[in-house]
Design brief:
The complex is a heterodimer of chains A (278) and B (302).
Chain A: H1 7-33, H2 38-43, H3 55-63, H4 66-97, H5 103-112, H6 122-131, H7 138-147, H8 151-162, H9 167-174, H10 179-190, H11 192-208, H12 211-216, H13 225-235, H14 242-277
Helix pairs in contact in A: 3-14, 4-7, 4-8, 4-11, 4-13, 8-11, 9-10, 11-14, 13-14
Chain B: H1 2-37, E1 40-41, E2 49-50, H2 54-60, H3 63-96, H4 102-110, H5 117-128, H6 134-141, H7 158-161, H8 163-183, H9 187-195, H10 200-211, H11 213-228, H12 232-237, H13 249-258, H14 270-294
Helix pairs in contact in B: 1-14, 2-14, 3-8, 3-11, 3-13, 11-14, 13-14
The chains are: A mainly alpha (278), B mainly alpha (302).
Chain lengths: 278, 302
Amino acid sequence: MKQKNGFADYSWRLLMALWAIGILFPLLWIVFESLKTNREFFADIWSIPEKLKWVNYANAWTLLGVKQSMFNTLYYIGLSLLIGMFFTTVNAYALTRLDFRGRKLIWAMIMLSLFLPGINALVPQYVLMRSFSLTNSLTGLVILDSLGESALYLMLLGGFMASLPKEVEESAYVDGASLFKVFYKIIVPLSIPGIVTVAIFKFMGLYNNFLGPLIYLSDPRKYTIGLNIYYLNILMQYKTNWVTLFASVIITLIPLVFVYVLFQRQIMEGTTIGAVKG
Amino acid sequence: MTKLRIQKRLFVLLAVGPAFAGYMLFTLYPNLMSAYYSLLDWNGISSARFIGLSNFKRMFGDEYMWAALRHSLIYAVTVPLLILVISLFLAYLLTNRGYRESAFYKVLFFFPNVLPMVVIALIWAFIYDGNFGLLNSVLKGLTFDYDGYYWLGDEKIAFWALIPPQVWGGVGFYLIIFMNAMIAIPKSLYESAILDGATHFQRLTVITLPLMNGIIRVCLLFMVLGIFKTIDIVLILTNGGPAGSTDVIGLYMFNLSFGKGVAGGGMHTYGYASAIGMFLFVILVGAKLLIDKLIPNKQVEF
């Protein structure tokens, strides 16, 4: 459609610009403040820093536990993603493309979890994890998150695999290929777009997971990145080192910005698929 | 073919077996157990005592619970409506008006959706801070002096101040869904309407919105149920304070189970917290039925 320049159009564009500013301005403000000294920040939040204090980032990284929590997050996400994606992929295949007795029942039972509120399961889940001695452990969180819930992702990837034509497997079987070979030589390569989308969503879900680490991790050396800045924020109410806190928040955002820029198309498409099917 | 059948059995066993067992253990079983826990008097350490429906009796007389539920109800009406209006409006502008900046806006407007809740909460904590907050500073520039006024520290204001962060973080997701739904509407419908002299507003209310009835309904349901389950953003920004003025039902339950005795007084009251969880489950089902009734599911063909 053409660019129009009526009065109405100017007001619509103004409104959209305001919303854009509402998103960008706080973020840029935090970047701006993260490059000052505390003295400059407390004196006047609008003052231009004399020198850009990149050292705040170094301090956040080493002194405020950001480095440790970033490595913890890497471990937690890496392992959860690996195990979780493995299970989601093999299950999506088995539950959508293989016929066996009880398949419908298992599928229905997994989909049941989409209707459960989840929030009441927090306490029994905690008691369960405690009985396995999996609390205060990143590995415990990995087990909980990679085995616990995957109905939505299973549905996403299952839907993708179900849409592949039946012939792709049949000709391979005629050639004498085994089921395992068909799975990893044909099904997995053809499903890569679906697998990538699900993996991105899992990554973001894990990176943004706050309640899980909050409930289970009590040792500061095990904090994930989100939990770390949460406790830093509380700490800063007594120890006024705001500029370093700002730097920590920005460091937390960097991996997400990367993922968003790289996979923006998949994220937006996946959002729509998930909503339409859910 | 028997060889293939054995392989299939083996694959199903290895693939579905462990994952389904894990799902049963870590997801289904805890959900079922919460119903049983709600009948116990248990702090998680001492031995549990079966007390029947006493937890529910206590709950119905618990004024903190009712206050938290009232807060959740207000949020469940205001926040989804604001998100709905803003995201529909922005989606309409982005899809039906080809402005130069639209492509960039689409990417930017979605961005808050990928941010962790902790970061969204902290951004707003920085905005609302009394001495060094962005809001007071901007207001000062506009000659309103709120210096030293803590928006989240005022019992009357804090509750309303929690609405913008939730809307800010929620619009992007629904904006993208609505945009894709709008793009799917055939152009020919608009063309004939334009020939008949329909204004933009008429086209929006007569064509676009009715055709999106189904997706709007699903999104509204998503949002309302999500609001009732909210814990994290309120926990981080105010933890229910000051004086319980921002406590919501999910957070109240959470603090009863894991909290440091903030809102309800007690901590690790697993039995009582589970009773509230069951009540919340009933409320969620009720909310779904209510939305089904309020927004009839009209199937539109085009």
